[in-house]
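Q: Got a minute? One more chain.
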Amino acid sequence: MSLKFESYEIEKILPHRYPFLLVDRIIDGEWGEFAVGIKQVTRNEWFFDGHFPGKPIMPGVLQLEAMAQVSGVAFLGLPENEGKLALFAGVKNARFSKPVLPGDSLTIRTEFTGKKMNVVFVKGEIRSADQLVCKADMMFSIVDADQNINN
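A: Always. Here it is, folded:
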C-alpha cells in the first residue's frame, strides 16, 4: 500500500508540532521500506530570522530533522511501533551540496537499510528542483514513548 498523508494525518503518527514539524505531506512510500515527503520552504519560516539574517539559509541540522521525520512516518506508523518514539542515535556521511533558500520545494526521500534490535538504519536525501541539496546515513533508537529517556 502506497503511503500518502497530509500534515494533519502526519500529526497522528509523529509527536512533533509547529514549529518543529518539518514535513508538509507524504506523497509516496511503503510501510517500513521507504518514504517520500515534501517540505515547502517559505520566507516565513521561524529559523530564517536568526540564521544568516539578510541571506536566509535553512540550517543543515533542520534538513536532517526533516529527513528523520519522513522516515518516522513510514516506520512509526507500523502497528508494532504504536506508542513508540524514534530518537536520533547517529548521523554519518552527511553532505550539504546546495543551500536551501526561501521558495525551495524540497523532495525528501528516505530508505530503510537495516534493523538491529531496537536500532533502525536509514539512508536519506533531499532534492530541490531535481538538484541534490543534502544526503546522510542515519540511525534511530526505537523506544517506548512512556519510557524515561532522561537516564
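A: Helices lie at 7-10, 60-76.
Q: Perfect, thanks.
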